[in-house]
Structures are given as structure tokens and as C-alpha cells.
Amino acid sequence: MSRDSKVFIGNVPSDCRESDIESFFRGIGEVRDIVLKNNYGFCEFVDYYDAKDAVKEKDGERLLGTRVRVEFAKGERGGGGGGGDRGGSGSGGNGGGGNRGGDRSCVYVGNIPNDCREQDIMSFFQGFGRIKQVMLKRGFAFAMFEDERDAEDAVRDMSGKKLRGERVKLEFAKGEKRGSDRDRYEGGSGYRVRVDGLSSSTAWQDLKDYMKQAGEVLYCKAHHDRQGEGMCEFQKRGDMEWAMDKLDNTELDGRRIRISMEGGGSGGGGGGG
Fold first, then answer.
1. What angle do CA 91, 93, 95 make, to 5 degrees?
2. Angle at the Cα of 158 (from 97 to 208), degrees rounded to 5?
3. Has this prediction a pTM greater than 0.90?
């Protein structure tokens, strides 16, 4: 019975104490034991039905400002911060598991200061749940949340707030997950824009990362036909139009870029995609 009445608490704030866990579950039932680890913990109830109520009523609620997971423990695992994650995807720090939330767990952070660090992004989102990864670029970043509900809260509550003195824009990232970049592409099937004014330090990978905030990018090239000029092809017309409307005359790697529709949709040319 003792194992059945033990619940796993995931995404626990680092400053959480046993008394905070007791307060969190107050009114649910008598607690027999609490074990706190790094970013997670276990709470054992005297009665199985109290544990069942705790899982039903407290999963997804906030503990010290952070949304936590509450579920039946599936055996106490040593060290690695995992315990009965739904779908069997463990919650370790290597960002592997299945991202069922798709793009809605990845938040685009626009207009960040040039001297912004990864820790600044983490601090900005403090209290909105665990962040698995931060991808920092010049002028923008992506923050990958473990739970898409936390990402939704962050976008709703923090968009337009100031980060190191700059008012930032938050949106759900529209592009595919990073890492699938060498796209299987033969050219000519999407909607293209021409990009002028690229910095000599901007590679096609950087341009592609920047354009992903508009939507799925099929293909990119930079400085291929002419220094300072690039091309980006989107899968959807709406994404191309969004890029022309929102990203034209914005700054990338210290240079203001201009984006215009490229005539026709044929030809691929050689580039990196």
C-alpha cells in the first residue's frame, strides 16, 4: 500500500522546502513522508485515496509560482530527476523526450539586447516552469519549455515586458525543431523572398534560424549569388507574407535587412538548406 500511496512531484522549484510541499497538499489528506530531490520530490500519503485525490486535484497547479506535475510514483529513481513522466519520456536535462506539444512548447523571444545571455532568458521566465533549452541568437532567441502549458502562460503574461531594458516580443515558434536542417529539397515548390543587406558574418544557417519565426522554411542561402544577398523559401504563402510584413527592416547580426518577394517560384540553385 505504501508504494501505491506515493506521488511524484515534478518541476519543483530549487528553493522548495518540505513545509512548502506540506502546504501544497494541505486539505488533501495526512502525509506520511516527504522526500525532496533536485527539481523533483516524492510525497507519501497515509491513505491511497488521498494520493489519488492529490494527483487529480494538484497536477498542473503552481507550487511557489511554478507549475508542477503530480502523478503516481512508478518507483523512486536515483539521481536523474525522472519519475513516472506521462508517456514514458523522462524529464532529464538532456532535452531528449517526445515533444508532444509541438511548436507550442517553443517560444520565440524577439528584440532581445545584443548582450543578452542564456541566464537572462532563464531569469526572465522564472516561475513559468522548467525550460529544457535556450537557443540564443543575435537579437532573438528560442526558449523550449518542458510543458506547453507553461509556454502558453509565458507568452500570455510576458509578451511586451522588458528584458534588460528592452521590450521583447513573445510568440510561439512556427518553425520545425532545430536539428532537421539539411532539408530534403529539390527546389521550386514554395514561396520565396529575397533578403538584402546581410552581414558578412551571417551564414545561411543563421538566416534560416531567423526566418523560422515566420514559419516552416524549406530552403535558404546567403552570399551565394552576391555578397550581402540571400534567399529564403517558405512552404506556405502566409508565412512568406508574415516575413515580409514583420521581418522587413529588422536587424540581424547588427545589420538592417530588407525582405522582398522574389519573382517566380522556379529554380533552386545551389545553396545550403
1. 80
2. 55
3. no
Cell of 144: 523550449
- Gap between the Cα atoms of 83 and 16, Å rounded: 18
* Side chain identity at residue 20, one-letter code: D
Residue 264 has pLDDT above 60, yes or no: no
Q: Tell which phi-psi region holds residue 259, choosing left (phi > 0), alpha (psi between -120 and 50) or beta.
A: beta
**Mean pLDDT across 87-114:** 56
Q: How far apart are CA 242 and CA 251, in angstroms?
A: 16
